[in-house]
Amino acid sequence: MPAASILLGASLGALLEVPSVVPALALMVLALAAAAAAFAAPRPRAFLAAIAAVFFAASWALSIRATADARQPPLRTALAQATGPGSAPVTLVGRLTEDASAAERGVALRLHVERSEWGGETASASGGVRLTVAGTLGLDAIGQWRAGRTVRVPALLREPGRYLDPGVPDARLGLARKGIAFVGTVKSGTLVEVLARGTWPAEAGAALRAHARDAVRRHVGG
């Protein structure tokens, strides 16, 4: 019962555009009062229903808050002026959250930014970015860009595109829920600097994944 109530509440918060958590919090307070009254009566079925409503309202409130945080992550606030038309590359320092992979136009990187440098200033705002390293030089270094390692890279960032047609899902919000605040490009693989290796579990996992990919490539195919 609690799991079903939490799932319903989280789904409602993700699907509906509710600007405030006040309705969810009000429902939770009312459900708590109803649960207390049903417990004192005692009325077991009413008590269980009220408890289910408490779980539902709490997860609804958390989902509303998570959606709001996804729409406006700290990194987007910090780099609001650095991503306009004609802006210069922003230097990002952060941890790779996935192994680099070959993409149609180069190499794809996913980075959790820890700090950024732009306009002579350093900001410690966090957030996720998805980068494409252009050119063929990145393919030679793709094995060095493993999940868990810290890199420093200058990138030209932009907010993900979105369609405003009725009924079309908000792709920008979908990426934000996955932790992606910006997408961007890096001119060359030579600009990606590995500052530190990951922890030993992260390095061991990356080595195993690399070995598996190599085995599939050799014995199965591309």
Would you mind describing this structure in some detail?
The protein is an alpha+beta fold and 222 residues long. Helix content is 44%, strand content 24%. The protein has 7 helices and 8 strands; from the N terminus they run ααααβββββαβαββα. It has a 5-stranded mixed barrel. α3 packs across α6. The chain is elongated, with a radius of gyration of 23 Å. 24% of the residues are buried.
Explain briefly what this protein structure is:
The protein has helices spanning 2-15, 22-40, 44-71, 74-78, 137-140, 171-177, 200-219, and strands spanning 90-96, 101-103, 106-118, 121-123, 127-134, 150-158, 180-186, 193-196.
Descriptive key words:
single chain; 222 residues; alpha+beta; 5-stranded mixed β-barrel; elongated
Q: What is the fold's blueprint, element by element?
A:
Elements lengths: L1 H14 L6 H19 L3 H28 L2 H5 L11 E7 L4 E3 L2 E13 L2 E3 L3 E8 L2 H4 L9 E9 L12 H7 L2 E7 L6 E4 L3 H20 L3
Parallel strand pairs: 5-7
Antiparallel strand pairs: 1-3, 1-6, 2-3, 3-4, 3-5, 6-7, 6-8
Helix pairs in contact: 1-3, 2-3, 3-6
Low-confidence stretches: none
Radius of gyration: 23 Å
* Element order: H for helix, E for strand: HHHHEEEEEHEHEEH
Number of strands: 8
Mean pLDDT, nearest integer? 87
Tell me the helix content: 40-55%
Lateral strand order in the biggest sheet? 1-3-5-7-6
What is the count of DSSP helices, taking H or I runs of 4+ residues? 7
Question: Looking at the structure, what is the overall shape?
Answer: elongated
The proportion of strand residues reads 15-25%
Distance between the termini: 46 Å
Question: Largest sheet, described in full?
Answer: 5 strands, mixed, barrel
Which class best fits the helix and strand makeup?
A: alpha+beta
